Amino acid sequence: MAEHRSMQRAALLDAARSLLSEGGTEALTFPALAERTGLARSSVYEYFRSRAAVVEELCEVDFPVWAADVSAAMERAETPEAKVEAYVRRQLELVGDRRHRAVVAISASELDAGAREKIRAAHGGLVAMIVEALAEMGHAQPRLAAMLLQGVVDAAVRRIELGAAEEPGAITDAAVSMALRGVRG
């Protein structure tokens, strides 16, 4: 029974990812989740009390996977500058990933305070990854620089997501260049 519930919950989360990546937060409804998973709408409520609860669980499940991917790319880099580059590049390479698209859609939505706090904490963990590399580079305020660096990444993500005139690779290269020049002071 527990295994069945776990599989149903995973199917609901997978359906939520698809809905979010295909149609944004407006597409994430309980009727749509029920249709995608073959469950009755009332059954969806047995797993999640609200749309915000779905969002919170997606953040708990997906953000660590995404962050681990970025962290692994940084660990392969040998210098602090290479770590900054890996931090920016890997996040932008993940833009096409369904988990990432879902997190972006979630971040753009109007959520309750609990869901917003989970997203903020997850982003804080991502930003914390780069602080040490910035400190090694001699940055006077590595935490502030990390937050601003993430702002550059977030802007590049939005540009890629919008299907900008520039190729994603050109946006990535520009973001890396701007980030490296900016953190060097």
Write up this protein.
This protein has 185 residues and is mainly α. It is 81% helix and 0% strand. The protein has nine helices and no strands. It is elongated.
Strand content: under 5%
**Topology, number of strands:** 0
Percentage of residues assigned to helices? over 70%
Order of helices and strands: HHHHHHHHH
What does the radius of gyration come to?
18 Å
Q: Calculate the terminal CA-CA distance, rounded to whole Å.
A: 58 Å
- The poorly predicted ranges are none
The shape, in one word, is elongated
Rounded mean pLDDT score:
86
Question: What's a quick, concise take on this entry?
Answer:
It contains nine helices and no strands.
Which descriptors apply to this entry?
mainly alpha; elongated
Summarize the helices and strands and which ones pair or pack:
Elements: H1 2-23, H2 30-37, H3 41-47, H4 51-76, H5 80-93, H6 98-108, H7 113-136, H8 142-161, H9 168-184
Helix pairs in contact: 1-2, 1-6, 2-3, 4-5, 4-6, 4-7, 5-7, 5-9, 7-8, 8-9
